[in-house]
Amino acid sequence: MPSPTSAKTNTARQMGALVATHATPWGLAVFVFMSGYANRFACDDAIINARVVANVLAGDGPVLNAGERIEAVTSPLWLLVLSIAAWLGVSVEVAAVWLGLLASSVAVGWTAHTAARLWPGEGPVLPLGGVVFVCLPASWQFFTSGLENGLIYLWLAASFHLLVDLARVDGASRLRTTLTGAVVGLGLLVRPDLGFTVAGLLASGLLVARSRGDGARAAAALILGALALPLTVQLLRMGYYGAVVPNSAIAKLPDGHRIEQGLTYLRDFYGRYWLWVPLGIVAWIGLRALRIGDPKRRPLILGALAAAALARHAYIVWIGGDFMHGRWWLPPLFLVLMPVMAFRLPAASGRRRLELAGLAAIAVWSVIVASSVRPSADRDDHISDERRTWVEWSGREHPILASDYSALGWYDVGAEYRALAASPGPRRLVLSGRFWGEPATYDAADWYPPSVRLVGDACPLGVLSVVAGRDVFIVDRWGLGDPYAARIERLLEGQIGHERMLENPWLLARHASVDMPLDERGRSARRALRCGLLRELHLATTAPMTPARFARNLWHAWDLTWLRIPRDVGTAERLFCGD
C-alpha cells in the first residue's frame, strides 16, 4: 500500500503533467480570443452574407437578388451557419464576428492539443508553431472580419485531430475512417478552392491506412466519406446556378496567370514579417524530433500536409493572390504549422538546450513582429490592410453592422435606393453615378419578380445591398454578384476581384426596358445578349427552376463557368451572334 506521502507526490506529478499538457493549448486559445476581440470588425465582403441570408429566410433561396440565381458568397457551409444563427434571431453581422472568433480560438487550442500528442516523451508542451501563428497582426484581423477564416481553422483542426487518431491506432474501424473522410471532405463546402488542402489531408489518411496494411478498404471508406456530400452539393450547385464554382470565384479568376502580382502578395506577407526565420527554426526542431522514439507514422502526416500547403501557395501565386493583406496566406500557414502548433520538449537535457535556444529565438521574433510590424498604409501594390481601411472609412474602431458604415457614400446610395423603392410608380432602373458614368433613371426591364420595386447599380456590394433592402435588385458592376460582370474581360488594373466592370451598354441592354432606345454600343450589347451562351446564361440564372431547367443547367454549367465576354460590345456581338 503506498504511503500518504508517495500518494501526494504522485497526485502532484499527475496534476503537473495535466497542466503541462493543457496550459499551452488553451493559453494559445485565450490569446487568440483576446487579440481577435481587440481587432474585431466585419468587412464589406462579409456583409454580403447578410443580404443572402435575408433572401434565404424569405424563401427566395441562397441568392443575392430575388429572381436571379447567383451564388454571390464563396462558402456554402459558412452561409448555412449564419442562416441558422439568423433564424434564431441573431444579427448576421454579429454572428459572423463572434462565431468566427470562437471558431478561431477553439481551432488553435484544439490543434495545439492534438499536435502535442504527435511527439513522444513527458517533457513540457511549448507553443512552437502556435506562437508563430498567433503573434501575426494579420492573424488578429481575420480571427473575426466576418469572413469564413475561423471556420477554415476549425475544419483544419477537426481534420487534423481525426487523422492523428488514425495514425495512433492499428485497427481503426470503418466507421471511424469514413467519419474522418467526411470531415476532411467538408473543406470543399467551407471553400471550394480548398481542393489542394482536401487532397493533402486525404493523402495523409491514405498513406497512414496503407502503412497499417488495410489500404484498400480504408481508402474506399476515406474517399467515399470525403466525396459523398461535396459531390451532392456540387450537382445541386451546377443544376441550380448553372456554374461549377460560385460566381464570386468566377469574378476573381484571372484572364491568364498573375504570377508577378502573386509574388508581390507573397513578399507582402512572408517578407514583411520575416517569416522565413521562425519557419526555418520550426522546421529544424521538427526534423530533429522526428528521429526520437517511435514516429507512429508522423512523417506521413507531416509530408502530406507540407505538400498540400506548398500546392496551395503555388495556386495563390499563380492567380495573383488577393487584395486583403495576409488573408489567403493564413490558412496554408496554419496547415503547415499544425503538426508543431505545440511541441513536447525531449527528455535529454542536451537536446533541450538546442530546442530552447530555438524557442527563445522565436520568442524574440514574435515580440518584434507583434509590437512593431504592420502593413503599410500608403501603397500602390493593390493590397490593402483590410481592417485599417474599414476603420478609417467608417470612423469607428469596431465596425460590424451595416449601420456602422453610415459615413460611407455608398451607404447613402443604399438609403436612397430604399426610399425610391418605397415610393409609388413603375419599376425603375437607377444609375447612381457614384460608380460609373453619370446619374440617370430609366424604365426597368420586365423580367424581374413582382417583389422587385427598383433596380440599382453598386460597387462595393455588401453595405449598400443590405441598406437598400430586398425589394431593390442590385446590379454589381464588379461582378461578385452579377453573372455578366463576373465573366467580362478585365477592364481595370487594380485589386484582385475588382478589375472587371460592367459598363453602361451591357447594363442598359440587360436591365433597361426593351422599349428604350439605345445608342449603337447599347444596341450591339442588346443583340449579343440574345445570342448563344449569353442568352443561355440569362436563362440559366432567371428562368423558372423546373426539372428540365435543372438538367439543362447541369449540361451547360462547365461552358458557362468558363465563358468570357469581350469588353468591346461589337466584338462580343460578332463572337456570339456571328458576322
* Main sheet characteristics: 4 strands, mixed
Principal-axes geometry comes out as globular
Low-confidence stretches: none
Strand order of the largest sheet: 4-3-5-6
Total number of domains: 2
Instruction: Give the end-to-end Cα distance, rounded to a whole number of Å.
Output: 99 Å
User: Number of DSSP helices?
Assistant: 25
DSSP summary, beta strand count: 6
Radius of gyration: 26 Å
Structural class: mainly alpha
Textual characterization of the structure:
It is a single chain. The chain is mainly α and 579 residues long. The protein folds into 2 domains: 19-143 and 246-372, no CATH class; 408-577, no CATH class. It has 25 helices and 6 strands. The chain has helices at residues 4-38, 44-58, 76-87, 92-118, 128-134, 137-142, 149-168, 174-185, 187-190, 195-212, 215-241, 247-252, 259-271, 276-289, 298-319, 330-337, 349-372, 386-394, 409-422, 462-468, 504-511, 520-528, 532-542, 547-561, 569-577, and strands at residues 125-126, 343-344, 428-431, 440-443, 454-458, 472-476. The strands form 2 sheets. A 4-stranded mixed sheet has the order 4-3-5-6. It has a two-stranded antiparallel sheet with strand order 1-2. The longest helix is centred in the N-terminal third of the chain and has 35 residues, at 4-38.
